Amino acid sequence: MKFSLVSSFALIATAAGQQGDPQPADAAPAQGNYGGQESYGGQESYGEQGIERVEPLAAKCCVRRCPSSAPFFSRESCGCVVGIQRAQYSVSSAQMSYSQPQGYSQGDQGGYRKLQNADQQGFGAEDGGVFGGDSDDMVAPANTIDTRRLQVTRSGVITLWIGFAVLFLASICYINKYLFYFNFSGDHEDSSNPKHLDWRVGAYVGDNVYAFLASPSLIAGIVCFFASLAYLAMATKHGFYIRCHDGRAFFYARYVDWIITTPLMLHALAHFSNADDNMWHFLFFNDVLMIASGLIGSTVEGGDKWAFFGFSMLTFIPVIYELCRLDKKEVDAQVYDTAGNVEPDNFGTAPARNGGAVQPYIWFYRSYRNMMNVTVVTWSLYPLVWILAEGTNTLTANGEAIFYTVLDIISKAFFGYLIVSCRRNTMAQLQSSGYKVTQTGDLDANFATYTSTRSIKKTAGSSDL
With b meaning 16 or more CB within 10 Å and e meaning fewer, what string describes 34-43? Predict the structure, then answer.
């Protein structure tokens, strides 16, 4: 028993001594030995080279709106700073004092940084001046962004309110005109021949011609109404956000307006040009792609924006080309019966047959040219404003608001006015304008001969409604 206890104590002491012995310098450390070279404190430790060290991500500095008292944004401090006020007199650089250090300190107004010693001379502006004062008379310090050019101010807001008022009043007028056309577009049929007119294939006399103008008049009213809603949102300082990369106020409400209203305007143009469904679908999808790609390009930073702008132009050019080509096509002046079949005989030789009629668009085809010219000219100016405003920041936010407002009023309100005020042209006027028609001859005289045998309110030779 005693021997066993002595032996146990001896074994424990021996193990403790071996464990406490220092390892020889030339001995290779064990693979799992924490005290060796691969220990926590060694060269391969987790704190140094054992685990890859991840640097914390730097906070992104977004350019934001600045108050009028400090309208310049500094990327270095990521804050708004005051500018250098223009002096009323010239101060040479030798007269400027740099004796007192000037720096930034945390202000107490909205967290914006202010320049200390605001009453001291400037940092070397050519015209001298002091810090602070009227924001309209400030020069931007070095490496700052003048946010006054990137925000819509009072003049821009007034312009947006004018755009809202004009478009809203125009929408009311055009919708009322639609109701007038709708109420007077009934089938004023002759009791002796109730099928002599059919507005589904067109009419050349009588109040049925109003039916052709009802639909585009409604479109004109809806277009102006949607546009006025967009301008109401922008005028009340909504429908925009401040772009992070440059601080410009980007009004996405415009693009919401355009992507809804421009397809409707193209539908009205297709209606007056008698374009088929395939052409209307082509114009519609190209127009939507044009607006969507322009919207994406307006929100993209750097050179990538021009790729989206180029894509927008690739879809815009075919729209303009097809609108111009529709003005050059041959006008279908063939006579159709109530079933929609072409009647081959000359209209004046058989006044009693099935009540044939031409398609009504030929009586307003000269109006299509005016609408097309307004659309092509104004729509072609939108990309130029985009380049100067959203693209390069050359145009101020107020200038952008003014230019877009003028273009919207012309391309929408004036466009609608051309629709609701158009007057019926005669066949002679159509041919004198250089249009080619599928049927020649004095059709006006033939139609007048036909209508003289029936109790119709208006004759084909009438120049108005």
Answer: eeeebeeebe
Please give the order of strands across the beta sheet that includes 144-146.
Answer: 79-81, 72-74, 144-146
What confidence tens digit (pLDDT) does each residue in 273-308 have? 999 899 999 999 999 999 999 999 999 988 899 999
Q: Does domain 154-451 have CATH number 1.20.1070.10?
A: yes
Using the 8-state DSSP alphabet, how is residue 426 labeled? P
Answer whether 288's CB lies under 8 Å from 259's CB.
Answer: yes
Pick the closest to residue 180 from 172, 169, 188, 189 (CA basis): 172
Q: pLDDT tens across 313-352, in order?
A: 999 999 999 999 999 888 887 777 666 667 665 544 444 3
Contact by Cβ (8 Å): 308, 301: no
Could you tell me the end-to-end alpha-carbon distance of the chain, in angstroms, rounded to an integer? 133
CA distances from 150 to 113, 168, 170, 390, 392 (A): 20, 27, 30, 10, 12
Q: Tokens standing for 396? A: 């101020």
Token pair of 92 as six digits: 């040479």
Sequence-distant (≥ 6) Cβ neighbours of residue 348 within 8 angstroms = 445, 446, 449, 450
Q: Spell out the domain ranges in the chain.
A: 72-93+101-146, 154-451
pLDDT in tens, 180-238: 887 765 544 443 444 444 434 344 444 566 778 889 999 999 999 999 999 999 999 99
Report the alpha-carbon distance of residue 64 to residue 83 in Å, rounded.
16
